[in-house]
Amino acid sequence: MKTKKIFFNLFLLFLALVTVVPFVWMLLSSFATNQEIVRVDGGLFPTPSTFQNYVDVQEKFNFMRMFFNSLFISVAITAITIYSSALVGFVFAKFRFKGRNLLFGVVLSTMMLPWAVTIIPKYEMMMDFGWLDSYKALIIPAMVSGFGIFMFRQSISQISDEMLEAARVDGASDFFIFHKIILPMSRNTIASLAIFQFLWSWEDFLWPFLVINDEKKQLISVGLRMFNGQYGTDYGGLFAATSISIIPVIIVYIIFQKQFIAGVATGSGK
Fold first, then answer.
1. Taking every annotated instance into account, which residue ranges of this chain make up the domain ABC transmembrane type-1 (predicted)?
2. CB 241 within 8 A of CB 224
3. Across all residues in the chain, what is the average pLDDT?
4. What are the beta bridge partners of residue 233?
């Protein structure tokens, strides 16, 4: 039994190294010159080391503007998606009405469609509404998440009906129950969806690339392609910009990791 545990821990260590080493290499390479990065016989630690890549990031494109654009869009989409998913999940979990299972099946079916299938219809809708080159084209199509609704529906179903009925007997409305009972008891689900949704919004490239043409409104995921020139790629600048751009994702995970791990543990236990 002890031998199995040792091999299991070694296997986990191997997976951790496979996951972390590329990020470590990228971070160290962000302090190297392009000549050092492309050297075949180059080592892990750059020689010489330089901060010039970080200094030059803003000169390549409006990095800070795109960074804060991405931060605003990702936070807005995440907050709206969490609230809408919790509200719809509450309805599917605790309300009985005709066609409920059919509607929930339709929600689940949206998770089975490849995202690329919906690009053309969504783009035509944005064009018809006159929303191209605006933040509405980024936020509104992402306001509702089938995955989020599914998560909250499963989580809220575990909450006792007797507790909600007791609240109704005391005069609480459904909106009061939702805000004061359901949401506080769904902290783990909120944390999990916050991590996933923020990551998906932050790293989304194709949709912002299609609907946003104004550089002042563009996101950092699209802005990073500015380092790819006609005759070469500024790897040092690209690695420096990418290292900065992953900071918000790390911060979001640190904020919600306790609830996220607790939710995973609870789900595995059930």
1. 67-256
2. yes
3. 86
4. 228
